[in-house]
Amino acid sequence: LLNSWDPGSSKLMEANGLKAIGTTSMGVSASLGYPDCQAIPFEEMVDAITKITDKVTIPVSADIEGGYGKNLNEIVDSTGKIISTGIVGINIEDSLDLNPLLLDETEFCERISAIRSLSDSLGFHLVINARTDVFLTGWGKPENRLTETIRRGNKYRKAGADCIFVPGVSEEDKIKTLVREIDAPVNI
To answer: What's the CA gap between 145 and 46, in Å, rounded?
Structure first.
């Protein structure tokens, strides 16, 4: 998915034949004068996503970073508010402020499961794109990153994610291994 940051960029993408778009938290934040990593007030992010979904007819997936909450209940509540904007999917990540100390995968799986339960209770299938930032943040030793990404990706899928997003990897052999070993569609 190409990423948009405001109604204008979203409409341009739609006019050029895209079948769906994703929002970019960094782009939305920067366009409103904030840095990335959930520095934008949540209400402003929701407003920006609403303005995008109101102006296009194609499906929109929203980048919700870490979920905009300090605990599981707040993250589920925030996700519910974002769902109410009319989005069809989300991108949620397992890093905090792009720190190489990633969230514990069990805690992140609880987030995914709780969001899946919320979606099910609302009667629709929200596409959950679970992002693991092992490569992007430089987690651990380089020789362990591939194995860790596969392990996390498969756990996230079992928790209810539809697809796994692995930014920061570009080597063809590693991408082939990720696609083969993660039991879900893989985004790079």
So the answer is: 33
Round to whole Å and give the CA distance between 61 and 157. 18
The string of pLDDT tens digits covering residues 87-105 is: 999 999 999 888 888 999 9
Q: Please name the residue that has the structure tokens 């994610």.
A: 161
Residue whose token pair is 């925030």: 78
The encoded tokens of residue 105 equal 């995968």
Collapsing DSSP to helix, strand or coil, 130 comes out as strand
Q: What is d(CA 149, CA 80) in angstroms, rounded to the nearest whole number?
A: 28
For Cα atoms 134, 74, 184, give the angle at the middle one, nearest 5 degrees.
Answer: 40
Angle, vertex CA 44, rays to CA 80 and CA 14, nearest 5: 80
> Model pTM?
0.95
pLDDT, tens digit (0-9, with 9 covering 90-100), for 55-79: 999 999 999 999 999 999 999 999 9
CB 40 within 8 A of CB 32: yes
